[in-house]
Amino acid sequence: TYTAGAFTALCRRLEIRQSMGRVGSCFDNAAAEAFFSSLEWEVLSRNDFDTTSRARAVVIDWCYGFYNHRRRHSAAGGLSPINYENAALTRDAA
């Protein structure tokens, strides 16, 4: 899907640089794919938006209000991203 000509053309038109690496490489997009999968399942599939600005507001609220502050992530030891970063800053400062 993401290598299709129409999708590639759309990305170029919107000035979005596509990123693709080999499976299993350290540049694998697994984290980004997990984020967008969660966004699609938890937000986009459960809402009908009348306007782009309403969609933007709901997505931003989900990202900052829930995903970054309350949602626990297995890759972060069960912490939310903000709590993980704060713990790392505290640990590094010590």
Quick structural summary:
The protein is 54% helix and 0% strand. The chain has four helices and no strands. The protein has helices spanning 5-13, 30-42, 52-67, 81-93.
Rg for CA atoms: 17 Å
Mean pLDDT rating = 84
Number of strands: 0
The helix content, as a percent range, equals 40-55%
The global form is extended
- Contiguous low-pLDDT stretches (5 residues minimum) are none
Classification by helices and strands: mainly alpha
Q: Which percent band covers the strand fraction?
A: under 5%
N-to-C SSE string, H for helix and E for strand: HHHH
How far apart are the first and last residues' alpha carbons, in Å?
46 Å
How many H/I helical runs? Answer: 4
Query: What count of domains describes the coordinates?
Result: 2
Q: Describe the sheet with the most strands.
A: none
Topology:
Layout: H1 5-13, H2 30-42, H3 52-67, H4 81-93
Structural overview:
The protein is an all-alpha fold. It folds into two domains: 1-30, no CATH class; 43-93, no CATH class. 54% of the residues lie in helices and 0% in strands. It has helices at residues 5-13, 30-42, 52-67, 81-93. The protein is extended. The model has no long low-confidence stretch (mean pLDDT 84).
